[in-house]
Amino acid sequence: MKKKLSLMFVAFSALAILAGCEPLTVFDPKGPNAKTLSDTIILSIITMAFILLVVYVLLAFMLTKYRASKASADYEPPHEEGSHLLEIIWTVIPIIIVAFLAVVTVRTTSTVETTPEGYDNKEPLVIYASSSNWKWHFSYPEQGVETVNYVNIPTDRPIEFKLYSFGPITSFWIPQLAGQKYAMSDMLTTIHLAADEVGSFMGRNSNFNGRGFAEMEFEAQSMTQADFDDWVSKVKANEKPLTEEKFDELLKAEHVGRSSYSSTHLEFRPAPMEHSEHMKMGGMDHSDMDMSEKEMDHSKMDHGNHSDSEKNSEETHSH
Amino acid sequence: MKIDSSLPLEYSTEENRLKIFGFWIFLGAEIVLFATLFTVYFTLQTRTGSGPNGAEIFELTPVLWETFLLLTSSFTIGLGVHAMRIGNKKAMMAFFIITLLLGLGFLGIEIDEFVTYVEEGATIQTSAFLSALMTLLGTHGLHVTFGFFWGVAILIQVASRGLNPQTANKAFIFSLYWHFLDVVWIFIFSFVYLKGLIS
Amino acid sequence: MSMEEVFHPMQEPMILAAAISIVVGAVVIVAGLTYFKKWGYFYKNWLSTVDHKKIGIMYIATALLMLMRGGIDALLMRAQTAVPDNGLLDAQHYNEIFTTHGLLMILFMAMPFVIGLMNIVIPLQIGARDVAFPRLNAVSFWLFAAGCGLLNLSFIIGGSPDAGWTAYFPLAGTEFSPTVGNNYYSLALQLSGIGTLMTGVNFIATIIKMRAPGMTLMKMPMFTWSILITNIIIVFAFPVLTVALALMMLDRQFGTQFFAMQNGGMDMLWANLFWVWGHPEVYIVILPAFGIFSEIIATFARKNLYGYKSMVMSMVVISLLSFLVWAHHFYTMGHGVMVNSVFSITTMAIAVPTGVKIFNWLLTMRHGKIQFTTPMLYALGFIPIFTIGGVTGVMLAMASADYQYHNTMFLVAHFHYVLIPGTVFGVLAGYHYWWPKMFGFRLNEKLGKAAFWFIAVCFNVTFFPLFILGLDGYARRMYTYSESTGYGPLNMLSFIGGIGLAVGFALIVYNIYYSWKHMPRNEKADVWDGRTLEWATHSPVPEYNFAVVPTVTRLDEYWFAKKEGRDITAGKIEKIHMPNNTGTPFWMSGFFFLAAFFAVFNLWVPAIISMIGVFGFMIHRSFEKDHGRYISVEEVMATEKSLRGDK
Hints:
The complex is a heterotrimer of chains A (319), B (199) and C (647). Chain A is α+β, with helices and mostly antiparallel strands and 319 residues long. Chain A has 8 helices and 11 strands. In chain A, helix 2 (32-65) packs antiparallel against helix 3 (84-112). The longest helix of chain A is centred in the N-terminal third of the chain and has 34 residues, at 32-65. Residues 279-319 of chain A have low confidence and may be disordered. Chain C has a single domain, classed as Cytochrome C Oxidase, Chain A, CATH 1.20.210. Chain C is built from 21 helices and 2 strands. Chains in contact: A-B, A-C, B-C. The interface between A and C is large, with 105 and 106 residues.
């Protein structure tokens, strides 16, 4: 048992050393939401270390004091039924710990699901992030530009990423800015974040989606509002608009490098609805629902022709 | 084998009591199975895609017939078990045969219903709603079909071997199964057809 | 499908090597049985047996085999990721390997190991002569074996499933997984799942109805309690899997739209169904381990289990909560603060009854006289390691924090910290503990302890680094990573630990051979000075288990009887009714296997013909007049005498 404990010690100190020279990504937040999560995780690690300590001390005590080699040969262990007092103690204390963590969870979850504190007086910048095969598309409806496999954001504005997928479920994750969220084909999800400082951050899909999954990374770059405006105007001036044909081509490709366009695909391929809208739809009559389902057909990657949705469904069955 | 003659034939041996108890547990699993299928159906019932919704394809008349046939068959199998308990093999067999014929009638109407749907272009592949509907109905229908053949096998055994602890036990367990399918149908009738027709 | 496509996987050299080793292994077994003229013995005593003890041994043998198969998968994964940009495996092969690793370890290693132990021990522990439905028990095993065989066959013919063991749609749909791999998934799991469901029905009936006279529910051993609760979870959870797999098959092979991306399909419906089964499944493999540890800690601390009632209560609470937490597997799907908070709280709540159990085990040892035998080492190793798994579980339960852990190596480390010290240590402890009961000799203690230390230490070397990697942003299921990420050194450490784990498991297998050769035979019935009824009958156990069914007046009756010098197996021997062996379950499952195999390839005509074979055997069974047989008093007395005389 000692061997194992010393091993854990080595492992923990390795963690400490690693944290010393270069902080682990999750503990190196560059935005308020990632900071909230980092603080939550550290708080929970401290709480849990306390619980581990209690269990380890008790175990070490029992194992050293009550081993057979220490007892006399004729020692006969007593019959013990249990103790109500002890049972109440080790039920109530964990309940208090869980209640404490529950409060923390509810508060931090609602914090990271809204516009970050300190940024709430500013209008958020909405960016649609969608995945297809093993790449990411970023559409800026406000600016009217679109990028592939990289995303630029201004530092002094809250950002809202609207996520969806043209295929398998993916998970959009920029660990230094915010926690991850799924991108799905039939429903829009939202990530709120903001970047406190200028920098370049690793972003990736963290949800397994097939052969090219390991390489499905993108760069998220935060820059001053002036640099951001500058970049937008350069894209608008130098890049071609994104046509439907070009977009279909992009969707079919497996891996592509970075590219930029001076219009977005949202004009001809609207994003699916948000989860809350879906819920409302549930109770409404069917004509509306049909509409939404047809919209979803639009986002289907290999069905360019969506004017005839009945034909669409037949095509799908021939797979 | 110890036979306890104070109990009905189907409960009279230890093995018989175990089998009935075991079958109740199995029915518990069947309840979960159908509950899951119902949940899938309720989740997908508004997701009709480009296909029709329930109100557009459901017809009340055949469904009422199906309900009538299956409810009656549940009653007749109850009579059959009663006949078995008073040791009247002929009446028991007659009621079981009526039950199975009613089940067959139910299946006939259900098959006709499916054919109608397909003719109207509403197939299991059309939309998530229809996939869920037909899987739910189909699972119930397959249970009835399986029950039909099972019932026939039991009738043959009762005819050739008479009423003894083994055959009575089988017939009784079969009646539990048949009642269960009836209960499932009542849920299908209320929450699939009636609800679908109203909305 | 052309022959080339069918045998496509063989083009990969490593798969070819594995395929050849499987074929060679099968040929050796067949040739050996033929050469030694053992086919008759093998069929009569094993393939057609309805004896719960033999069925249990077959379950455990299969589990050990699959432990090796899944372990090789794991080693390959660790080898591939040991260094950055490694080219040992390509992405497709890696994807197939982590998918089959998960499936094999959970469904074809942990499950059969647990079911094997419950088969062997439960009837003995409750003083019964067999399970409630011995034939159904054989059907359960052979259906499980058919499913297991089918999944392993995918490795050779047609390609393995490659969408993860969770098989999320639309990835697992035909559009993105066009090979037959996921057809194998749905059909292989369906077969073994139905087998497991039947086990659930069987053991609930056994435990509720067949306990020895006087053994009320609150006088049952803790292992029996854990198995009762486990089987109740099985009966409520497995039908959900049955439905989910059926819908998967319909979507993939019949063009339905349940999880499709168009026509109203809903991809997250699969995730919900999968985890409504999947989370209780975790407790199906953990609770029996809790039961095993309770028995072993009480035995080797030489004290009764502390807080028996709270131990039972905590398991009941855990089983209820296990059905209320499934959405914590996808906090990140965006279902809002409210839903996430509710599931966070239900999930964290499980820590409370689990903590109660940990403290009860610790307090059982207080004032005890602890002996460090191999099974006890596993139980003691379980406490500190599993607690790490438990507390990281609480961390993961916090929805907000999970946004950073989800899909990372942190999660992978967490569930290995739960499942290895929990389930694997549990079944290995039980395996060492009950081995003498099964075979009449012990496993060598020195080798057993050496294996334990290898496994316990190397487990931490393998999996602790993964916590750190996860916090550094390393997503799970990546077949490779670039050097600039800096993930290299810790991955290498993890690989080295993996090799050590492999050595530990190899030692366990070697110990079977060594002990078979060298350990003394004819151990006494009660090798460990146990507390429960299984130790009251001979080792190995005669087919009728107990010549005289003991009467129970209190918990640990056998222990108190020993102290008072009473023989609880004394009494008048009567003739014993036993079921006959039958080949029907074996052949019926064989036809089930064929039907499923043809269905994988959409070959419906042969599949239907095979299903007719299945129904043929059902009809045969229905019409069969088989009321079992009696073992005469003289025969029982002769057996008893020979077993006692040798002691």
